[in-house]
Amino acid sequence: MVSLPRGAPAPHARRRPRAATLTWSAPFALAFAVGACGNRDARERIFAPPTEAATGDAALHAVTIHQPRWLEAISTRETDALGRPVEVRCETCHSTQQLALPTGTANLRGPHAAMHFEHGSNQCASCHDPAHYNRLRLATGESIAMTAAMQLCAQCHGPQARDYQHGAHGGMSGYWDLRRGPQIRNHCADCHDPHAPRFPQFSPAPPPRDLPAAHRASGASHE
Amino acid sequence: MNDSKDTVKRRVALKVLATTLGAGAFATALAPIQQFTDSTNVQEWLQKHYRELSSREIREVLARLEAETKQKYGREVTIQDIRPQAGVQFAYALNLSLCIGCRRCVEACHKENNHDRASHNAYIRVLEMEQGSMDMERGRADYDHPVRADDKFYLPVQCQQCENPPCTKVCPVEATWQEPDGIVVVDYNWCIGCRYCEAACPYHARRFNWRKPEIPAAEINPNQSYLSNRIRPQGVVEKCTFCLHKTRQGQLPACLEACPTGARVFGNILDESSSIRWVLENKRVYVLKEELGTKPRFFYFFDK
Question: What is the pTM of this model?
């Protein structure tokens, strides 16, 4: 079990019984796992609003996980006549072409050729379902939809999944007070490229301009 | 006889001189009033302390400030008076293992809180720290290279909303105080600009408006409140208010929403189901300069 033991509900279960409506079919299933397969709503509802009896409170607004559009499609790095990026869904190629899932990244061709891989010792089939190219496969062998990818990530990244479940990992926006408004949370893949998940280096916003001039000249400690 | 006549004349002359000087001094002292060109300035001058304003007076003050903003900055804004919620005590936590030092929180603060564009002011300083050091005084705020640098960690510092705030105690006019939900606020119209509070803050969290803030009308955030992000006058002190115009209405603060790594956790510490409560109960949190006894409501932690 990645998160809390089943027999000991956390205090939060009283107000937000997140686990109540979820399927615990696999040992790696998490409270935030996306439920129904094949649901392609951009923002899928994940926490069912608690019933009146469970909370004694007004119904809470939903916490939704943002679904990256490219989870079920990949970029061709080309643009159409209007300058929009062209994305291709997995089935576009993989419903007609019967290809063996490659064991390594060396012999990848076509739209996959330019991809960057840096994710431990994982092979393609560590996560992708060899029988269904537009699906993923858990370590148990269970096939899951691409949109349920967070369930797969959580198999190995337990501490991060636990923190995520408690709102202490991953960006969010909206309301802290769910009685007053909804909250939208980032998907693992919003920030981490599943094929090279390390957060990249990039240039920060410009440094402050109101530091004392003496500080800038001497390089002394701030202020 | 002649002597006494001379004395009387001298006394009259002295009286005339003293009266002239006195009248002149009085006129000089009242000169600011003569410069008042419209009734707005008089109303501003006569305005009471925020906490002594009746609800009717508050409405008048807000309407006046909205009109002033329109006149000075050319933008229609809404300035609200948002009171603390019962049963809410705010707290903030920041995961230093996740922070990459990108300063997006600083940018978000700059825009949300209507800071002066020229000085690029903001309530957050991100300090680049050497691994192994916890002394914020040795952090550098002026780093400018791709982040996160391998051998560094990043410590964003803003108002710690201390439970025992040194800044409010030194204010000679009680223009700054702690609200029931824990947020330390400033009545910008009561502040005399002495900057004692700025000197008293061990976290360098207060800022002074040296000049009248300049913001293009299109960039002004029109969702404002009296105690937080309304455009401050020149010559007053300002500080982070946990975006109370958002957070007191249930929303997350701007710096948290801007954070790309989810390093920031905010919420009501009295709510047992809240994320902030989970962090405080399950992570090894620490506060800055604990030895000063300021009891910050802003906590830091590492994953490992």
Answer: 0.79
